Inverse folding.
């Protein structure tokens, strides 16, 4: 199974390399939202620093959501999903590899871009490691939860709005914890508790969501 997992990640890397716009769109959206915000509210450093935790996390959440509508779309259209469903390999492992590849080439890039944008908002440089840790723990959760909605709506022509309605309520705990750990860091309060909760949430989603994604795909392909 480890070989199948690795081969599927390589396949996804090749497919994403042929569609660079799918990788660039969430990053461009993330950067534009944060870059335009100081123009709207003014360049006052203290106010931007106060608002930066919520802004960074809302922008990251929407950027991840933007990239999820087409997560399984091409596989559904070319019949790959039907082959996955009837494959002797566990569907949960296949979808976990798919989501991991998606996060590796889009979510991780978003994490690496965030320090530059955070410093632009006035976040102190010594708080950037907390930002990186929170995004590294939180963005996989966003991708996994979003993949559940993507699996349920993959057969719909215009499933983007329905996907958002299904997934946004599930994103609320991640948003609260992610922005909360940054606010605690800015106020000089302990942040370990927030990070441990986010790590627990990540492990819970890695354990449970592959089963929900697999069930959603079976419903979508009519198996």
């Amino acid at each position: 199974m480890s070989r199948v997992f690795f081969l599927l990640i390589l396949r996804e890397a090749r497919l994403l390399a042929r569609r660079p716009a799918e990788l660039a769109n969430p990053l461009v959206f993330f950067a534009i939202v944060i870059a335009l915000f100081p123009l709207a509210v003014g360049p006052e450093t203290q106010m931007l620093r106060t608002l930066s935790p919520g802004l960074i996390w809302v922008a990251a959440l929407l950027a991840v959501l933007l990239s999820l509508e087409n997560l399984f779309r091409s596989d559904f259209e070319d019949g790959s999903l039907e082959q996955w469903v009837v494959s002797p390999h566990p569907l949960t492992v296949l979808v976990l590899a798919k989501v991991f590849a998606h996060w590796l080439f889009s979510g991780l890039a978003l994490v690496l871009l965030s320090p530059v944008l955070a410093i632009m908002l006035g976040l102190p440089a010594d708080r950037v490691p907390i930002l990186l840790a929170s995004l590294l723990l939180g963005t996989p959760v966003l991708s996994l939860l979003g993949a559940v909605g993507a699996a349920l709506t993959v057969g719909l022509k215009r499933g983007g709005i329905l996907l958002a309605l299904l997934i946004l309520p599930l994103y609320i705990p991640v948003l609260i914890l992610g922005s909360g750990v940054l606010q605690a860091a800015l106020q000089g309060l302990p942040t370990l508790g927030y990070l441990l909760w986010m790590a627990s949430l990540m492990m819970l989603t890695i354990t449970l969501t592959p089963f929900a994604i697999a069930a959603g795909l079976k419903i979508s392909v009519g198996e």
